[in-house]
Amino acid sequence: MPEMTERMSIQGKRGRPSRRIRLEEIAARCGVSVSTASRALSGVGGVRDELRTRIIEIAKSMNYAIPASVAGRKVILAASSVAMVDSARNQFTYHVLDGLNERARLLGVELVTRPVSAPEDEIALLRESERDDSVAGCLFLTLDDDDVLTLTAGFAKPIVLVNGDDPSMRHSSVTPCNRSAAMLAAQHLIGLGHRRILFLMRRGRRTIERRYEGWRDALITAGIAGFDDFVVEVQDWLPELANRAVTERIAARGLDFTAVLTAGDSLAFGAIAGVQEAGYSVPGDVSVVGMDDLPLAAFCNPPLTAMHIPMREIGSAALSLLLDDMAHSGSPPRRVELACNLVVRQSTAPARSGAGGHQLAS
Asked: Please, what is the Cα angle at 43 between 38 and 44, to 5 degrees?
C-alpha cells in the first residue's frame, strides 16, 4: 500500500490525472455553459477570442485532451428504415432521436441523418464517410446489431451504437441497463406476491434478450422454478399481437398466471386489453408491468406501471461518447449503460390468494 500511495502521489505531481476530465468540469471551472466550452474547444464560432483563449488555457491546465476541431465537420447518424418505422409506431426511437438532436444543438455539432435499408446502403455510407474528411464519426441507430458489427469492422473513424449491443466490444455503445431493469421490474411483482409471471417479448435483438435474462434472474433468485413455459413470444411490437397472445393463452389454459411483464410498453398495452377482453380485471386479477415508460403509459386504463428507460438520455449520451472517442484517439471502446427506475401506477397490485391456476415450484 505505501508503494501504491507513493506511485499515485508521483503521478499527481507529474500532472497525469487518475481519471478522465469531463467537459462539464471545464465549463464549471470557467463559469460558462457546456455549449460554450464545447464551441471554444472545438473551434466552432460564436465565442469571443479572449474567452476562447481562457477556456483553452484552463482546459490544458486540467490536462483535458482537447479534441481536433469539429468546425466544418459533421457526425453521420445512420438510421435503418426499420428503426424509423419503430419510431413512428411506438415512439421509443422518437425520444432517443430527440435527445440526440438536442445534444447536437447544444454542442454545436452538425448531425446528418442518413437512412439505410440494406447492408449495401451501410457499406456505401461507410466508404463515403471514410473518404470525406468533413465526417468526424458515425452513430448507428439500427435494429440489427449483427449486420452493423460485420460491416463496420476496420472502419477508421469512431463509431457508437445507439441503443445497441456489441458483445465483442469492437465499438462503443450506449444502452439502458436492460438486464438489471427487467430484474427490478420482476422483483416488484414478486414483492407483491406474484409467482406466475408471464414474460411477453419479441425476440431478435440482444438488448431484448437482456430483458428476458433479467426476468429469469429475478425468478431464479426468488427460488421460482418451472418458468420456461411462461415465456410468450409475438412476431412484432404491435399491441394487437400481444392482445391476441394473451387471449389465446387464457382460452387454451385458463388464467394460469397472475402477472405479466412485457419487454416493451406497446406489448403491455395489448396485454391489458387481452386480459380485460377475457373477462378479467387489471390489476384485480392480473398485474401488468411494461418496460419503456412511454408518455402514453400514464394515460392508459389503468395507468401502466413501467420501468422508466431514459430514452432521451440514450441519444444524448451516444453523441457525447462519440465526441469523447474523437478526443481520446486510441482509447478502448466502452459500453455505457444508463440506470432505469420503476414508475409505479395502477396496473399492479398484490396477488390475490389462491388466484391463477397451477402453482410453480419454489
From this structure: 75
Q: Which residues pair with 306 in a beta bridge?
A: 290, 343
The candidate with the shortest Cα–Cα distance to 172, out of 293, 325, 5, is 325
Would you state the pLDDT for residue 29? 92
Gap between the Cα atoms of 252 and 106, Å rounded: 54
Rounded to an integer, what distance in angstroms lies between the CA atom of residue 88 and that of residue 214?
27
CA–CA distance, 174 with 201 (Å, rounded to integer): 21
pTM score, whole prediction:
0.78
Say if strands 74-80 and 287-292 run parallel, antiparallel, or are unpaired. Answer: unpaired
pLDDT at position 40: 80
Sheet harboring 305-308: ordered strands across?
A: 231-233, 197-201, 259-262, 287-292, 305-308, 341-343
**pLDDT of the residue at 86:** 60
Domains and CATH numbers, the chain: 74-176+311-339 (3.40.50.2300), 178-308 (3.40.50.2300)
Angstrom distances, CA of residue 14 to CA of 7, 9, 10, 18, 63: 11, 9, 6, 11, 11
Which residues, in sequence order, are CB contacts of 114 under 8 Å at separation 6+? 76, 77, 78, 79, 125
What does the alpha-carbon distance between residue 181 and residue 269 come to, in Å, rounded to a whole number?
19
Cα distance between residue 257 and residue 219, in whole Å: 14
Asked if residue 302 has a cis previous peptide bond (ω within 30° of 0), the answer is yes
270 has which bridge partners? none
Q: Which amino acid is at 180?
A: S
| CA separation for the pair 265, 308 (Å, rounded) | 10
Rg of the Cα atoms in the chain:
24
Q: Which residues of the chain have pLDDT under 70?
A: 1-19, 42-46, 66-73, 82-90, 119, 143-151, 153-154, 327-329, 354-362
Q: Count CA within 13 A, CB hemisphere, residue 347.
A: 33
Whether residue 115 contacts residue 87, with contact meaning beta carbons closer than 8 Å, is answered with: no
Phi, psi of 31 (to 5 degrees): 70, 35
Residue 60 has a pLDDT of 84
Looking at residue 301, what DSSP letter applies?
Answer: S
